[in-house]
């Protein structure tokens, strides 16, 4: 089973677009890069999905997670709207990046401008299990706002773990 990202971190962007990835998050990226243990480059590969223009965040995926998503997309009927939409999002609106030997991720200028990640800006790295959502804390991601609206329909006493399948002790 793949390791999961957990927790929230604040990460500063420097003038060259570099962000130092916290060590505990780097370990998950390293574990999710099949070539990492066999190469001596000290660089970990990952995929950043930046999405359509209205997205005010990016999602950072391990290679392992992206391969699983690619398999699910490939299983959809070729030419279907769902497949075409997912191919556009996960392939056309993404880019491959790497974490360097010093544990830094360099965001391309295009992404920094899209997200407003200027020199000295502090970003939020919020774990989502198999990916990290990265955003400017001054601009809440639109999908989080939608989730909060969804959650509010259940009321403050509702435990979202009720959505999980119950575990049985039967064998």
TrEMBL record:
At the top level, the lineage of the source is Bacteria
* Statement: the UniProt record of this protein carries the keyword DNA repair: no
Biological process GO annotation list? Answer: cell division; negative regulation of DNA-templated transcription initiation
Localization in the cell? Cytoplasm, Nucleoid
Its predominant location is cytoplasm
**InterPro entries linked to this entry:** MraZ, MraZ_C, MraZ_dom, MraZ_N, MraZ_sf, SpoVT-AbrB_dom, SpoVT-AbrB_sf
Does Repeat appear among the keywords?
yes
Positions of the SpoVT-AbrB domain: 8-65, 94-139
Q: Which HAMAP family match?
A: MraZ (MF_01008)
Family that this chain belongs to: Belongs to the MraZ family.
Q: How does it assemble?
A: Forms oligomers.
Q: What is the official name of this protein in its record? A: Transcriptional regulator MraZ
């Amino acid at each position: 089973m793949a390791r999961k990202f957990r927790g929230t971190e604040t990460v500063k962007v420097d003038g060259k677009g570099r962000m130092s990835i916290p060590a505990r998050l780097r370990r998950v990226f390293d574990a999710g890069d099949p070539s990492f243990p066999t190469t001596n480059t000290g660089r970990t590969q990952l995929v950043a999905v930046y999405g359509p223009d209205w997205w005010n965040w990016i999602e950072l995926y391990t290679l392992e997670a992206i391969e699983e998503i690619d398999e699910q997309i490939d299983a959809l009927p070729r030419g279907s709207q769902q497949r075409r939409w997912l191919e556009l999002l996960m392939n056309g609106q993404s880019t491959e990046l790497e974490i360097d030997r010093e544990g830094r991720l360099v965001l391309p200028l295009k992404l920094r401008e899209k997200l407003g990640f200027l020199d000295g800006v502090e970003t939020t790295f919020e774990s989502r299990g198999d990916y990290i959502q990265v955003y400017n804390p001054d601009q809440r991601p639109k999908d989080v706002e939608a989730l909060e609206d969804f959650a509010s329909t259940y009321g403050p006493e509702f435990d979202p773990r009720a959505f999980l399948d119950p575990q049985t002790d039967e064998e």
